[in-house]
Structure formats: structure tokens, C-alpha cells
């Protein structure tokens, strides 16, 4: 089975190679690895004729990517990409877990984080609460028989409001700003130049995340794409291009990280700067010390 596999845009070479190896182990012939925000732009811009500058805001379970692209008439050009490979929905869940466990420890003197079974239940409940708070202003958390002592079983019964959730995650929300600002700066654009904002990944359903995007870019995100499916649709478009079923599409992606080598004194000498359009080749002559 042939496949086009997508990865977070900010993955480095070893992470991409590991993903490709995983595909091979699973019995897939990996034809191409493409970046998730780029795949999302393919799905969004497929069959659109007018030129647009779009910002793809991709917040998944474990990673965060931002890409700025020019899309139109079958040409998809990535202008810049930025991100954080250690920021995603799981971090938001963990804040709720820590809050629940902290309250329980204060009240009962028991650390649930050291109990694997309890931690698993806390994590599942935290994720469910987070999802419910995308449409409700508060949610009830009920964990009967979370643990037991000589006095008998212990339970957790509490309420988490959306405001409290946003307070618990305020620093995570702040961390979303920098990659957006960096990608605009690297693309040499201002927020006025962005025509559309595309939200990708289930974590973009968090109302505070949507508010932040609106505040940063000054416009409502595009709601015509499904954040859960848009990357897979884009990968399918790329597969169609490789199979020859889809024509008139040119994809110009960039290197998310600078590439270079270590020279005397442990200094990295950049050969290919980040956000260089791919494919590219550069050569430089070095002598041994």
C-alpha cells in the first residue's frame, strides 16, 4: 500500500526519518512526507482560483505549527513556518490533571500522580472535561472510587468552569503567540496581509484558542474546513498529484529549521537557513583544523 504521510512542520530530520520508518514497519510504501499545515492548505486551496495569503494555525495533541502561505491558481508556496514540538492538547489535559490531583492531595493527603491506575482515569476525565468546556461554561467531574485507604474508598466530585480552565492554561495560551509572530516576521508580512486563517487540529476547538487567534490576527478564523479532517484531505490531494490523477498543482515547501554543520569551537555554521524553499542545494568548502 502506497501512502503520503504528514508530520508536524517543525519536525527535524530524525523525527521525519523515524515517521517514515514507522510507515515502512506498518507495511506502507511512504511516497512522500509532507508538513501538516501545507497539507491543510492543499485541502483549503484546491480548486480555488484567486490568490490569497493564508495563515495555518495547527494545534494538535502534542505539537503546534504555524505556516504562512500564498495560495492561488494551483500554486502553494510556503513563505514561512514556525512552531513548538512540545505544545498541544495533552499539555492542556495535564493542567486539569495536576489541578485535580493537587486538590485531592490537599484534602486527603494522597498523591494520585503516583498511582498509575488513578492517573489514567484522571487523564481520561481531564480530556473529556476539556472537550465539554468547548461548548459548555462549566462541567461536572465525577470520579468515584478513585482510590481507597483504611478508612474506605475515596471519590472526586467537583466542578470545573471554563474560566478556571483558561486560568490553569494561561501560560500555554501565551506560548501560542510567539510562533505566530515569528512566522509573520519571517514571511515579512503584517497581520493586514493575511486574507484567511485556517484552524487545524482538535485543540483549536478550545474557545480561548480561537479568541487568541482572533486577537492576534484581527479576524475570525475560516470555518469552512473541518480541523480534524483537513490534513488528511490535503494528503489525499498530494497522493493524487503523485499518482497522476491531479494535475496543475505546484507545491513549494520550506525547510523549517536551519541546516548546517558543527565547526571549530562547537559553533554551528549555517549552510541552508530556515524557511529556504525546497528543494535546494548549497555547497561550502571547509578545511580540517
From TrEMBL:
Keyword ATP-binding attributed: yes
Family matches, as CDD domains: ASKHA_NBD_HSP70_DnaK-like (cd10234)
Pfam families: HSP70
Protein name listed in UniProt: 70-kilodalton heat shock protein, variant 2
Similarity annotation: Belongs to the heat shock protein 70 family.
Molecular function GO labels: ATP binding; ATP-dependent protein folding chaperone
Coiled coil start-end: 112-139
Entry keywords, A to Z: ATP-binding, Coiled coil, Nucleotide-binding, Stress response
InterPro entries tied to this protein: ATPase_NBD, Heat_shock_70_CS, HSP70_peptide-bd_sf, Hsp_70_fam
Amino acid at each position: 500500500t502506497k501512502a503520503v504521510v504528514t508530520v508536524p512542520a517543525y519536525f527535524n530530520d530524525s523525527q521525519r526519518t523515524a515517521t517514515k520508518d514507522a510507515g515502512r514497519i506498518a507495511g506502507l510504501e511512504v511516497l512522500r512526507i509532507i508538513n501538516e499545515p501545507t497539507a491543510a492548505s492543499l485541502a483549503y486551496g484546491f480548486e480555488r482560483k484567486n490568490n490569497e495569503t493564508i495563515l495555518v494555525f495547527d494545534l494538535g495533541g502534542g505539537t503546534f505549527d504555524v505556516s504562512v502561505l500564498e495560495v492561488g491558481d494551483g500554486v502553494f508556496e510556503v513563505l514561512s513556518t514556525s512552531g513548538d514540538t512540545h505544545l498541544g492538547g495533552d499539555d492542556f489535559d495535564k493542567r486539569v490533571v495536576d489541578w485535580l490531583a493537587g486538590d485531592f492531595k490537599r484534602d486527603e493527603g494522597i498523591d494520585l500522580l503516583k498511582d498509575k491506575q488513578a492517573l489514567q482515569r484522571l487523564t481520561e476525565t481531564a480530556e473529556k472535561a476539556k472537550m465539554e468546556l468547548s461548548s459548555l461554561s462549566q462541567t461536572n467531574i465525577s470520579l468515584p472510587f478513585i482510590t481507597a485507604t483504611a478508612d474506605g474508598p475515596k471519590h472526586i466530585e467537583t466542578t470545573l468552569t471554563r474560566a478556571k480552565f483558561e486560568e490553569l492554561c494561561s501560560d500555554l495560551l501565551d506560548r501560542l503567540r510567539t510562533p505566530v509572530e515569528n512566522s509573520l516576521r519571517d514571511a515579512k508580512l503584517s497581520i493586514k496581509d493575511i486574507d484567511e486563517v485556517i484552524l487545524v487540529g482538535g485543540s483549536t476547538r478550545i474557545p480561548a484558542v480561537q479568541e487568541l487567534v482572533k486577537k492576534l490576527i484581527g479576524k475570525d478564523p475560516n470555518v469552512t474546513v473541518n480541523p480534524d479532517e483537513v490534513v488528511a484531505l490535503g494528503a489525499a490531494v498530494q497522493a493524487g498529484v503523485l499518482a497522476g490523477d491531479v494535475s496543475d498543482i505546484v507545491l513549494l515547501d520550506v525547510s523549517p529549521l536551519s541546516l548546517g554543520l558543527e565547526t571549530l569551537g562547537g559553533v554551528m555554521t549555517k549552510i541552508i537557513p530556515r524557511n529556504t524553499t525546497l528543494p535546494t542545494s548549497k555547497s561550502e568548502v571547509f578545511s580540517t583544523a
